[in-house]
Structures are given as C-alpha cells and as structure tokens.
Design brief:
binds pyridoxal-5'-phosphate, 370 residues, Aspartate Aminotransferase, domain 1, 38% helix, three-stranded antiparallel β-sheet, alpha/beta, Aspartate Aminotransferase, domain 2
Length: 370
C-alpha cells in the first residue's frame, strides 16, 4: 500500500485543476502583455483568476499579485518593507517557516534590520503579552507571524495580532500558506498589510502563489518591470494561475465537507496513536490547531529511531518537520522551541484524498516496529 501523509509539504494536484490547466494549455498561449487577441485571451485568464481568488478571501483584485510561490512573496515583502517603508525592526518568532528565519538572519547579519523574537508558550502559541510589549517598544516595525504553523498546525489569533499591530503603528505580514483554502479567510476583516499563499499546498501546481498587499501600502518590487501592476516582473505563468484559481474555487466550494472529512481523519489518528504508550502530541494538537496537521513525538526507544525512513520503506510518506529540513538529520527548529525537544517527532499531514484505511495501515506499521 502507498500512503501519502505529507500534505503540508505539498499536495497532489486535484483532477479539476489538471483539467483546467490542460484546457488553458491547449487553448491559450498568447503573451498576456501582447495587445492582440491572443494576448488579450491570456490576460483574461489572469484577471478572472485574480477576481475569483480575491472574492473567496474577501480582498480586492487589485490587492493580489501573482508570484512564483511563497518564498518569492515573503522575500519581496521583507525586502520591500526595509527599502520602501523604512522598517528597521522586524518582530517575528522562532517557529516561523525557515525561509523567514534564514532571510532575517542574513538581513540582520548585513545590518539591514534588527530582529526581535516574540516568545511562544509550551503549546507553541505566540505570547501575546510579549508581542504587545515588543510592538509598543518598536512603532514602525514589521511583524511577521504566520497564520498556521506548518510543522505543528497551531492556529494564531491573527485578528488580535493585526489589531495590536495597528494600535502600535506596526505593519503586519502573515504567512497564510497552510491556511488558505483550508480555513475561511476574510482579509477585509483581518486587515493585515501583507499576506502570502502558495498553490501547491492546496492541490494546485508548484511554482505559483501570490502576495496580498493591502490597498494603500506601497512597496518597491523585487523583480522590476510592468507585469502584475508593476509589482512583479516576468511573463505570467498563466497555466499555474488558472490552476491556482480552480484550486481555490473547489477548496471553498466543498469547504464544510472537507473540514469535516479531514478533521475526522485527524481525530481517528489521534485516537489510535493514544493507544501507543508514551506518545505525545506536539503543539496544540487537540485544541487550536489545523485539521490537516498532526505532529507526534515518540518515546526515545531504538524501535522509534529513523522513523521517516522506516515508514518510507513501508510505503508511507511523512516528514520530520518542514519539507525543507526533512532528509537532513537535525532537530526541527520548531520542536526545539517546545518542551521535550529530544524525542523523535513526526509530522503527519492529511488531505481530502486520504482514507481511514490508510491510517489503519500506518498505525499497524508503527505498532509493529521493533
Ligand atoms: C508556512 C509556509 N511558508 C512558506 C512555505 C514555502 O512555500 P513555497 O514552496 O511556495 O515556496 C511553506 C512550504 O513549505 C510553508 O509551509
């Protein structure tokens, strides 16, 4: 049996997304910047996608800028905040995605910004009191705190964080890579200055994503040129954009069913894992955490060593942390911030394509480790 439980790393393409992309590949090949009919047809694909996505997340189409994915979006925003908004302090946490941690390390090393780390508690939630102190002391700073943590699934109170940022004249950027398409998103209400999304986490292809920049906030582009309202140069990836739009459409069309079905899988796995002695769930697994992610620590026993590899041999894909660090034998930077970091930890992450039978198989394999 082959079981894919690494959906926080990337997801399989949805059949509807493949169909939509094939249709566009076959029928639309103009350069969206060309003024003739072929170009206009390609431009329509992009603008329709922008409208569809904006409507689903309660944004204005002019606030959505397509990029090659989340890393480009985050880098553009971080660099833009420093170069255009005179941001000199960035407030983040040690459990952000490694792209944020590494980029900010480099920016600090080069003297571009000072980085302040907000504390997290034993469950991996942001310490809001500490965030209040940091934002009060650093008016004009950029706060970078993700919506859903990609390793442990914790959901952050982004409405509260956004309000706190406004009250203390800070900018707010939230990484919504794990939450877009999986939680109801109302950007008008949350009102962050920046948000980011990546297609391949919600059954769209790799190499497409977008940044949301709130109306009125202006940053210089990283890639300079005319496309994407002068905010991101380069001939647009129209196939990816069409696929991304379709993925958003189907995610929200079947939203309640998906939440219910996938939450059921996570709860089922929790119940079965709890029967194994000395298992611990990392983060707020049974509380405020996303229904697609479950991070588990196993006892420090020889049979639980090399877990990812043993599961791989049995045909099961999981990860030790984020995909960026799996395969490399080091402790996840997120788990290190939690109590008991020394135990072998595994992230199981689910999608609508998983089944209870797959979970039964996975548990059977774990139970038979020796
Ligand atoms: C929370 C989060 N942010 C950013 C990224 C990077 O996304 P992309 O692969 O689109 O560059 C990921 C993917 O692992 C992620 O989970």
């Amino acid at each position: 049996m082959k079981v894919y439980l690494d959906n926080a790393a990337t997801t399989p393409l949805a059949p509807e997304v493949i169909d939509e992309m094939i249709f566009v590949m076959k029928n639309v090949y103009g350069n969206p910047s060309s003024i003739h009919n072929w170009g206009r047809e390609a431009k329509v694909v992009i603008e329709n996608a922008r409208k569809t996505i904006a409507t689903l997340i309660q944004a204005s189409p002019s606030e959505i800028y397509f990029t090659s994915g989340a890393v480009e979006a985050i880098t553009t925003i971080l660099w833009g905040a420093i170069s255009s908004l005179q941001v000199r302090t960035i407030i983040t946490s040690k459990i952000e995605h490694s792209i944020v941690i590494h980029t900010l390390d480099k920016f600090q090393e080069r003297g571009f910004v000072k980085v302040e780390y907000c504390k997290t508690d034993g469950l991996g939630h942001i310490d809001l009191q500490h965030l209040q102190t940091l934002t009060e002391a650093n008016n004009g700073a950029l706060v970078v705190l993700m919506h859903v943590n990609n390793e442990i699934g914790n959901i952050s109170p982004i409405n509260e964080i956004s309000l706190m940022c406004k009250q203390n004249q800070c900018y707010y950027c939230t990484d919504m890579v794990q939450s877009m398409g999986k939680l109801a998103i109302n950007l008008k209400e949350i009102s962050p200055d920046f948000a980011i999304s990546s297609g391949h986490k919600l059954h769209a292809p790799k190499g497409i994503g977008f940044m949301y920049i709130r109306k009125g906030v202006k940053i210089q582009p990283l890639l300079i040129g005319g496309q994407e309202m002068n905010q991101r140069a380069g001939t647009e990836n129209i196939y990816g954009i069409a696929g991304l739009s379709k993925a958003f459409e189907i995610a929200y069309m079947n939203y309640e069913y998906n939440v219910d079905y996938i939450s059921g899988l996570k709860q089922y796995m929790i119940q079965l894992l709890e029967k194994i002695p000395n298992i611990e769930f990392n983060g707020d697994a049974k509380g405020n955490s996303l229904y697609t992610i479950l991070n588990v620590s196993f006892p420090n026993e020889t049979k639980y060593e090399m877990l990812v590899y043993k599961l791989d041999i049995a045909g099961i894909a999981v990860s030790e942390g984020s995909a960026c660090s799996s395969g490399v034998n080091h402790l996840s930077h997120v788990i290190q911030e939690l109590p008991n970091p020394g135990r072998p930890a595994i992230r199981f992450s689910f999608s609508k394509f998983n089944t209870k039978e797959e979970i039964d198989y996975c548990i059977e394999i774990i139970r038979n480790f020796n």
